[in-house]
Structure prediction request, 231 residues.
Amino acid sequence: MFFRTVSAAQKFSEWSDSYDQSMKDYKWCGPDVMMKALADRVDWCRPDLKILDVGIGTGLLSARIRQDNKAAHIAGIDVAEGMIAQCQGKNIVDDLKLVDLEREALPYDDHEFDAVLSCGVFEFIENPQAVIKEMVRVVKPGGVIAFTTEPSSSFLSKISRLWSALLYLLSSFRRFERSKHYEREKEGIEQAIADTGISEMQCLEFTAYRPGRGSRIKYHLFTGVVSHTTT
Ligand SMILES: C[S@@+](CC[C@H](N)C(=O)[O-])C[C@H]1O[C@@H](n2cnc3c(N)ncnc32)[C@H](O)[C@@H]1O
Prediction:
C-alpha cells in the first residue's frame, strides 16, 4: 500500500501552518464560487446576518464574508485543532468550536442561522446525509444551505492525479499519508437531500486547478433554500 490512512483531524492539523499558502498555489476558488453563486439568495452585507461555516478550516470562506461585512455573526466548526488555531489567529470569527461532524451533532439550536455553508469538506465525510440533516436543522426557515462535493473523476484523470501525487510526494519527501476521501455523484447527493426540507436546489459544476497534483479537479456546488423541517 502506497499510503497510510490518517484521520482528517491529523491530516489537516499537520497541514494547517502551510494550508493557506497551498490553497494560493492550488488557486482554490471554492469560497469565491460559493459567494458568487449565493449572491441572489444571501445579502452578504446585511448587518444582522448569521452564518455557520461547517469545516471552516483556516477560515478562507469566512474571511471573504468578513471582508464584505464587519457586523455579521460568523460561527465555525472544524475537527482539526491546528486549523482552528490558524483561524482563531485571524480574528474573523465570533464563535469557533472543535466538532467532529462524523460523530457529533452541530452544537447549535434549531433555526439559528441565515446561511449554513460548507466548502471543500464533504469529500472527507463518510455520511453526508447526516451532516446535511444537521445543517438543515440549524438554518432558519427560508434560510440557505450550500456545500461542495467532489464527483468521481475519469480513469485518465485518476491516473494523472496518482502520478502527480507520487511526484509531489517524492519531490517534497512527504510521508505517504492520506485521509479517507469520498467521491460522490450528483444523483447520490440528490437522494441524500430528498425529504430534508431543502427546496430550489441547484447544482453548479466548477473546476479548481491544483498544480501540485497536476490536474484540474471537478467540484459540484449544491445550493438550496430550507423550507423546513428536519428534526
Ligand atoms: C479542504 S479543507 C476546507 C477548509 C475550508 N472550508 C476552505 O474552503 O478552505 C477541509 C476541512 O474539513 C475539515 N473536516 C474534515 N473532516 C471533518 C469532520 N469529520 N468534522 C469537522 N471538520 C472536518 C478539515 O479539518 C478541514 O479543515
